[in-house]
Design goal:
Elements (H helix, E strand, L loop, with lengths): L6 E7 L3 H11 L7 E8 L6 H8 L7 E6 L4 H15 L4 E5 L3 E3 L3 H10 L4 E10 L5 E3 L2 E3 L5 E3 L25 E5 H7 L11 H11 L3 E12 L14 H18 L6 H20 L5 H16 L9
Parallel strand pairs: 1-2, 1-4, 2-3, 6-11
Antiparallel strand pairs: 4-10, 5-11, 6-7, 6-10, 8-9
């Protein structure tokens, strides 16, 4: 009997115990059984003991690892802790999964099968809906010539899960649901912790492709995502920090992912993005507009002076 490859599922929790528990309950229903789940509490203000106690009630000890960090290391740092442990435990594949998601019971099986059938594919991702709907949040990512990432089919309604049944070319997979080959991780390294939040997954996929690994999108793997739950931000009124990380990290992304001769259009793209943010703040009825404008210029200043990682005042 052929043994199924072990998958390490990494969930990073930050002040989202209820979301994490709902995600864990959906993972309990997976039909793919060769899994070990790594819950990394990323310096939550809420004590993680209650979450850990409930998690232990769902899974056997050998299928669950609970880790508590003193400080918030960001998306990249928190995931890297789980990735290292999962690889050291012998996981052949690592599934990065947002804690504010709910997974279809067949979701992981479809991802694993795609990697099993293509040895040079290093990363595969899911079709992701807005939570509680059939409206698409992510169906593979593309990057335009100005270096701006886009979610394919964003906000399209997917009747009967019929969209994208054929293979489509993609440029990146979101870290919301990203299955990676451990062999590839050992070769290209971990997520870049300089990003802290946003763009680390996009840079990681660009790095993988540059070093010869393939990316795939698997529309049969279905996930539902509570968008911005971890940041407690609203879609039409984001918190000021999101504008900061968006601008600073887009500059860092261009620096890390493009050769010198390729950077002109992406930097023009960043200027266009900054202009669009100003227009958005002029016409949209958002709160804390002055703070958001200040954050945009703080981001530019920090990027120029190579101040990366967590935001510092």
């Amino acid at each position: 009997m052929i043994k199924s490859p072990l998958v390490g599922v990494v969930l990073v929790n930050f002040n989202g115990h209820n979301d994490t528990m709902e995600c864990l309950k959906s993972l309990k229903k997976l039909t793919y059984l060769a899994v070990k789940i790594y819950v990394v509490d990323n310096g939550s203000k809420e004590t993680p003991e209650a979450l850990f106690r409930k998690a232990k009630g769902l899974f056997d000890e050998q299928n669950l690892e609970l880790m508590s960090l003193k400080d918030n290391l960001g998306f990249a740092g928190g995931n890297n802790i789980g990735i290292r442990k999962a690889i050291s435990d012998g996981a052949q594949y690592i599934w990065l999964l947002n804690n504010d998601t709910v997974v279809d019971e067949e979701s992981l099986g479809h991802l694993v099968l795609m990697l099993e059938n293509n040895e040079r594919c290093g990363i595969v991702g899911s079709k992701i809906y807005f939570y509680g709907t059939n409206k698409i949040w992510f169906a593979g990512g593309t990057i335009n010539r100005f270096g701006i990432p886009h979610h394919r089919r964003y906000c399209e309604v997917d009747y009967q899960s019929s969209l994208d049944e054929e293979k489509v070319p993609i440029d990146y997979i979101t870290g919301c649901s990203l299955l990676a080959r451990s062999e590839m991780i050992n070769e290209i390294g971990l997520l870049d912790e300089d990003f802290f939040l946003y763009y680390e997954d996009t840079e990681y996929c660009r790095r993988a492709v540059r070093l010869g690994w393939g990316l795939e999108y698997q529309p049969k793997s279905l996930i539902w995502h509570k968008v911005n739950a971890s940041t407690k931000s609203k879609l039409r009124d984001p918190i000021p920090l999101l504008d900061y990380y968006d601008i600073r990290n887009s500059i860092l992304f261009v620096r890390r992912s493009y050769h010198t001769t390729q950077k002109i259009l992406p930097f023009i793209g960043i200027v266009i993005k900054i202009i669009k943010k100003h227009i958005r703040l002029m016409i949209r009825p958002e709160t804390r507009k002055i703070n958001k404008i200040k954050m945009i210029y703080h981001a530019i200043y920090d990027a120029i002076h190579s101040r990366y990682g967590v935001y510092r005042t």
